[in-house]
Amino acid sequence: MKLPYWHVDAFADRPFAGNQAAVMPLGEWLPDDVLQAIGEENNFAETAFVVPDESGAADWELRWFTPVCEIRLCGHATLASGHVLLGRDGGERVTFRTRQAGVLEVRRSDAGYELALPAIPTERSDWPEAVTLLGAQPLEIWRNPDRYGIYLFGSEHEVRALAPDLRGLGALGDDQFICTAPGRDVDVVSRVFVPGGGVDEDSVTGSAHAALTPFWAARLGRESFTAHQASRRGGDLTCRLEGDRAWLGGPCVTVVEGTFYLPE
């Protein structure tokens, strides 16, 4: 069985930056264990699978797999999927029906593309065990029941200097540990650790910015701002809060286009 395959660097204007995603359009869903095996074989933070949506609710159905599990929401692989499908099929926008995140949209923009994700609210909280494993004391902790946690630090230097106990964080569950601070050259800087989900440090995390967008919009007193995720590969985003949606903007680059060979 031959399956179409794209390797895309999302939130990047050049290869070897941003966050890597595999995008694989299918005619129909394969068994879940096969989808997971493909995700493990690709070994990216996420592999996105899309199938034409027969319900009429959206253009495509969309699911995301890390090397170890299926996840609830992935921004960069959704942006990459929009990049592939709009480039292949044309048009200005494409919509995706997901199992837990509702209908998502990718459209062309001056930044390359814009992605609409559900804005993720957080509430003031505490988690001493996580703070110990992060190895630095944040000013504030804000969390969402869906396991998104924002750890606010006072400076970009503190965020860049973090060297957390990843094994220990992974043992706490598949939480996103979103460490953030005001940026020097951009409004907001962050690093994101998800070791319990099979991704020690994510390169550029759309879902984390769906939480950071309402968080920072309230602090900055405006609905839009610029952001940089300070991973080794790095990536830049525009963030805008519009109602209950976080709009994230950035370019994508196709690195590989080819065929995935799967035994019948």
Helix content: 10-25%
Annotation, overall tally of beta strands: 17
Proportion of beta-strand residues:
35-45%
Determine the oligomeric state from the structure: single chain
Overall radius of gyration: 18 Å
Unreliable runs? none
Estimated structural class: alpha+beta
Order of helices and strands: EEHEEHEEEEHEEHHEEEHEEEE
Number of helices: 6
Morphology:
globular
Largest sheet: 17 strands, mixed
Overall pLDDT? 96
Question: How far from one another are the termini?
Answer: 6 Å
Could you describe the 3D structure shown?
The chain is an alpha+beta fold and 264 residues long. 22% of the residues lie in helices and 41% in strands. It is built from six helices and 17 strands. It has a 17-stranded mixed β-sheet that branches. The chain is globular, with a radius of gyration of 18 Å. The chain starts with a strand and ends with a strand.
